[in-house]
Structure formats: C-alpha cells, structure tokens
C-alpha cells in the first residue's frame, strides 16, 4: 500500500462482518472509527469528513443511506466505545455468521444521504456504477491514481491544465505533439522542480504563439 497499514483478520476466518469489526477494534484506541466496505466506487476524500461533521454528540455513529433509503453500515463512522459495548452485549462467541444489522439496533445512529453509499453487490450494480463513472468523468481520475500508484509517485495533478496544454499543442502544432508535450512537462517538473500547472500554462502560451506565427504570411508572399 502507499501508506503503512496494520492488517488483521476476523476469527474465525470468513466469520463475517461482526468478527471482522471486533478484530479491527482490538487494534485501535481512537475514539472514532471508520468502517468502510471494499465495493464503494464513489467513496471520495470528502466522505469521511462529512460523516464526522454529521455525527452529533448524542449519537453513537453516522452512516450513509443510499438512494432508496437503505442503511449502509459499511459506509460509516462510529464511536469505538459504543461499538465495543454493543459487540459485548451480543456476545463475542456468537458473532460469526451474523449480519451487521444485528448491531445497528443497539446503536443511536445519524443517517445521512450521499452518493458514496452506492455499493456494488451484483453485476448489474457494477454496470450501473461504470455507466455513472463514465458519465461524470471519474474514470480519468481513477486512471491517474492508478498510474501514480504504478509509478510510485505522489504529486497533485492539475488535470485541467495538462489537458489544456495537450489540446493547444495538438491544435496549434500537430496532433502527435499532445502526448509528447505532456511527457516533456512532466519531465521538466521532475528535473527542475517547475510546477506542472505553471509549465502547462507556459506551453499553452507557446503553442498559441506557434500557431499564430505560422498563420501569418511570410514577408513578400502574395495574399
């Protein structure tokens, strides 16, 4: 992983969400814990802060609900002590194979709507998520994240500035100039420390000048 992570596993293996939750709680002393599934394609950096901000003092947790109003307890923030108490009430030897909803009735919860609540349990769910991702242009962001992970780089990418520079190079110079230009912008950023957004802006201006100069008639040429 990109950051150090402590790994654990439920007991018994394959015992379901409640033993997994108990195993995770045993490794933390934090007052709040986030509980997240692995099939949430629209989870974003703003989801957890929104859940924390939406957790009132009198509640044991805040969770998202989907478009149909169904609870998504694996997209939630809980008070750790409240979870421990509820798990103890259920009995540590009776957790395996039980659904997470067995725990929810013992907690005071704040329910919040949010697009991140959409999970993918079936192939139709995956198809719907892919269609939505394509519609909102999230595919590009996911691809950039995957490329950064593959190359082992951590940096903010101003996608708009780079795409603008690629567009200007393609239109003002030639289509093959677009990928070569973005490569050179990245190379310059790595070698000289030049901010990619600044480099992209300079290249966009250069491409516009390039196109304008070549559009002007040469001295002595007939119009």
Structure description:
- This is Molybdenum cofactor guanylyltransferase.
- Residues 137-214 form the DUF6457 domain.
- Keywords: Nucleotidyltransferase, Transferase.
- The protein has 223 residues and is of the alpha+beta class.
- It has two domains: 17-117, Spore Coat Polysaccharide Biosynthesis Protein SpsA, Chain A; 123-215, no CATH class.
- 49% of the residues lie in helices and 11% in strands.
- The chain is built from nine helices and four strands.
- It has a four-stranded mixed beta sheet with strand order 1-3-2-4.
- Strand 2 and strand 3 (71-79) form a beta hairpin.
- The longest helix is centred in the last third of the chain and has 20 residues, at 196-215.
- It is elongated and about 80 Å long.
- The N and C termini lie far apart (63 Å).
- The model has no long low-confidence stretch (mean pLDDT 84).
Mean pLDDT: 84
- CATH H level of the largest domain: which superfamily? Spore Coat Polysaccharide Biosynthesis Protein SpsA, Chain A
Backbone structural class? alpha+beta
Largest sheet: 4 strands, mixed
Strand content: 5-15%
Tally the helices: what do you get?
9
Number of domains: 2
Poorly predicted spans = none
What would CATH call the architecture of the largest domain?
Alpha-Beta Complex
DSSP, total strands: 4
Shape summary: elongated
Question: How far is the first residue's CA from the last residue's CA?
Answer: 63 Å
Largest sheet: spatial strand order: 1-3-2-4
> What is the CATH topology classification name of the largest domain?
Spore Coat Polysaccharide Biosynthesis Protein SpsA, Chain A
Radius of gyration, CA atoms, in whole angstroms? 25 Å
By CATH reckoning, the class of the largest domain would read Alpha Beta
Percent helix range? 40-55%
Give the topology string: H per helix, E per strand.
Answer: HEHEEHHEHHHHH
């Amino acid at each position: 992983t990109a950051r150090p992570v402590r790994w654990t596993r439920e007991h018994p293996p394959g015992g379901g969400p409640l033993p997994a939750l108990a195993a995770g709680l045993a490794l933390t002393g934090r007052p709040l814990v986030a509980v997240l599934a692995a099939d949430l394609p629209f989870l974003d950096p703003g989801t957890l802060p929104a859940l924390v901000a939406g957790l009132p003092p009198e509640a044991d947790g805040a969770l998202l609900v989907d478009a149909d109003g169904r609870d998504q307890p694996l997209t939630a923030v809980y008070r750790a002590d409240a979870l421990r108490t509820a798990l103890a009430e259920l009995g540590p030897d009776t957790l395996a194979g039980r659904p997470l909803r067995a725990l929810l009735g013992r907690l005071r919860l704040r329910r919040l709507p949010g697009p991140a609540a959409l999970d993918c349990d079936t192939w139709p769910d995956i198809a719907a998520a892919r269609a939505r991702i394509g519609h909102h242009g999230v595919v590009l962001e996911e691809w950039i994240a995957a490329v950064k992970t593959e190359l082992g780089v951590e940096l903010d990418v101003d996608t708009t500035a780079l795409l603008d520079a690629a567009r200007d190079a393609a239109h003002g110079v030639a289509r093959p100039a677009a990928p070569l230009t973005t490569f050179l912008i990245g190379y310059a950023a790595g070698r000289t420390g030049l901010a990619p957004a600044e480099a992209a802006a300079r290249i966009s201006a250069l491409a516009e000048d390039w196109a304008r100069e070549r559009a002007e008639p040469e001295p002595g040429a007939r119009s």
